[in-house]
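The material for today's practical consists of a large collection of protein records. Read left to right, the backbone structure tokens trace the chain's path through space. An example says more than a description, so a record of this kind follows:
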Amino acid sequence: MDNDVTASSTTRNRQGRRRRNLLIGLGAAAVVGIAVVVGATLQNFTAGTSGALGARACPGINVTTLLPSIAPVPEVDWSNCNLVTARLSGAYLSMANLNGASLQGADLTGATLAYANLSGANLTGANLSGANLTGVNLTGTNLSGAILTGVRSGGIETMENQLVGTMPASWKLFMGYLMGPGANLTGAYLGFDLSGVNLTGANLTGANLIGARGLALTGVNLSGANLSGAIGVFLTNTTCPNGTSSNQFPNCTRQGGGL
């Protein structure tokens, strides 16, 4: 009988140890599983997001399509990233941090960069045709050879002597505006001395030119512009404020342009 009791006790002890080992094993597996899920979530968050809500993550640039591996979004943080020749046409990058980014030869046609930080960025040879650069920070930015046709601006936070390299031919940064051939100055306030500024082909629709001086405009659209009190006006092949041509009415003087 004592042998039976001993055997029964031994069996119960073995079963108890098995249950404890099983529970310990299940607990360890659960901990590992949670760690894997959390780790994967954090990895996906870091790799897939950037900007205000995530850590900075520089995208790779596909060698065939030139598209970035991370979609451009407002407030993205791509500071000091290599974005050379990246295809970012039409990208919505308002308030993005592109401080120190390498954007040589990048395609930014029609991109929205309003209030973005482009300080110290290299935009040599970049195509910014039709881009919105309103309120951007261009301190120390290199725009040498950049294409700026149709660019919108105003409220730019730097002075021309703070730019690295040179501006594109015939372009100037003046009173917060990028001014040059084909600039989009729709609705801009330009009541200051514009002597020496090349605005050939620029769009000044609805612009306020009250008291502007040194206006020598060729091929410009002045539809709806206010030219009251403008001084030293020379218009060639220009659309007058009421839509007529300066070729028919020199300097728009017969069309109520206020000149």
